[in-house]
Design goal:
This protein is an alpha/beta fold. Helices cover about 30% and strands about 15% of the residues. The protein has a single domain, classed as Alkaline Phosphatase, subunit A. The two termini are about 25 Å apart.
């Protein structure tokens, strides 16, 4: 068996809310992301990676546990894993790697609750969500040391008129994504432990507010940004809820009126934040090279979900359109000789099984993760099942079915309609495709509901002879993973 010292280091880079089509290696012609492109040029680029729960906290909970959102119970941003998930037989990948001889570290945004818990990481350097301006994390202390502080978007000129596109009051050298990259470089440069490391780096950007520093704010011309995808009758039905959610104090922006020039302004600022993250990725990869770890480190680059950026007259994420669920995924494995592109469907949660495999471990039964297709030991997926409080989805290499709580159902033939303009649900000639996907959706949902309540299983008389005696005490929670 391979020893811990023979296993590769692991570097997991995770920007927040990054669309795949804002990277030049994914075909964006209006932006140059040379460092992320360089990673793709030496690795496997996944053309269709789907985030099954396109919302910050549910997606991160699924990445940690390998379980879908129905199974682990985290369906919204105001929920988190139960504190006794260990006792229920659910361990995070950092916990598993720590037990296998790795030193695990997390730098940047993780979006755990409470925000400073470890969830299995041996050390954390914390810069939480850009909207959590009152959290006194490591980044807040850093800013204070430099006479600065965190700001709400509404403290900036033009915040409401430009729908969240602003110029940050924080100087370029002190930007949160710059600081996160610097801290990651410091970790790599100073690491002297004999154990392999597993480092997760969570960039808080390019999540809104769309707030590049003055030096980058005019880097991209709004007129050069890609036009938004037109709204449809289906997306219009979801718009009131999106507007209401963004009117809450965390954002406070009214998107009732959302013009194309405003969308392009947002996209230009978003692109500037992506450019800033690309520069940080370049510095981190250079630090890895300088430290002599470029050839013995598994490098994973992904994002937790996308951002509508005005597509369908919407902003944010949490609906099952491609703008929200299609994320970049690039993997560079030790010993890999050639770059390649995988066009087949993969799930973002497959990162969980992939990390475990390279650490010499296997996922627990009952997880929704397989080793990424295109890597050694990888598996091909027939479909991806997804869920959040907003609804449920199943997609394969050609079709996507989504159901929402208000009764809206969408069926898109992605092969012919990649912009998801024609809803084919319940239409003649498409019953076979819809029935096939609906059967998968219902089966996954029911299995996940049952598995999500595994902690309540009670042993019976054929498992415990005391079951029939007065005063029998059930074991709770049950840690069974069957």
């Amino acid at each position: 068996m391979t020893t811990a010292s023979q296993r590769p280091n692991i570097l997991f880079l995770l920007p927040d809310q990054l669309r795949a089509d804002f990277l030049s290696c994914y075909g964006a012609g209006f932006i140059d992301t040379p460092h992320i492109d360089a990673l793709a040029a030496r690795g496997v680029r996944y053309q269709r990676c789907v985030a099954p729960s396109p919302l910050c906290v549910p997606m991160r909970a699924s990445l940690l546990t390998g379980q879908n959102a129905v199974r682990n119970g985290v369906l919204n941003n105001n929920q988190w894993l139960r504190p006794d998930h260990d006792a229920c037989g659910v361990q995070t990948w950092p916990q598993q790697l720590g037990g296998a001889g790795y030193h695990t570290a997390a730098i940047g945004k993780m979006h755990f609750y409470p925000w400073d818990i470890t969830e299995g990481f041996h050390e954390r350097v914390i810069a939480e969500d850009k909207r959590h301006i009152h959290i006194q994390d490591d980044y807040a202390r850093y800013l204070q040391e430099h006479g600065l502080r965190k700001y709400h978007g509404n403290e900036h000129e033009g915040y409401f008129e430009n729908k969240g596109a602003i110029v940050s009051k924080i100087p370029a050298e002190h930007q949160v994504d710059v600081w996160v990259a610097n801290e990651a470089c410091r970790f790599i440069e100073q690491y002297r432990d004999e154990r392999p490391f597993a480092l997760m780096v969570g960039f808080p950007g390019p999540h809104c507010p769309y707030d590049p520093p003055p030096e980058l704010a005019d880097l991209f011309d709004p007129a050069a940004m890609p036009a938004s995808i037109p709204a449809t009758a289906d997306s219009a039905a979801m718009r009131a809820a999106v507007i209401a959610g963004n009117l809450r104090p965390w954002n406070g922006v009214d998107y009732t009126e959302f013009t194309e020039p405003q969308k392009r302004k947002i996209r230009a600022h978003y692109a500037a934040l992506v450019y800033q993250i690309d520069q940080g990725v370049g510095r981190i990869l250079a630090a890895l090279e300088h430290a002599g770890h470029a050839d013995d480190t598994l490098v994973i680059f992904a994002s937790d979900h996308g951002d509508f950026l005005g597509d369908y007259d919407l902003i944010g994420k949490n609906l099952f359109y491609e703008s929200s669920v299609h994320v970049p995924l690039i993997v560079r494995a030790p010993g890999q000789q050639d770059a390649r592109t995988v066009n087949r469907l993969v799930s973002l949660t497959d990162i969980h099984a992939t990390i475990l495999q390279y650490a010499g471990l296997t996922p627990a039964p009952g997880t929704d993760t397989v080793v990424l297709d295109g890597l050694a030991g990888g598996e091909r997926r027939r479909y991806v099942f997804g869920a959040s409080a907003a609804g449920v989805m199943v997609t394969d290499n050609e079709w996507k079915l989504a159901r929402y709580p208000d009764g809206l159902t969408t069926l898109f033939h992605l092969a012919d309609d990649p912009r998801e303009q024609r809803n084919l649900a319940y239409q003649d000639n498409y019953e076979t495709a819809m029935r096939r996907l609906d059967d998968i959706l219902q089966g996954e949902l029911l299995h996940s509901i049952v598995a999500g309540h595994r902690d309540k299983v009670v042993v019976t008389h054929d498992q415990d002879p005391t079951f029939s005696l007065p005063g029998f005490q059930r074991v709770y929670p049950c840690a069974s993973r069957e």
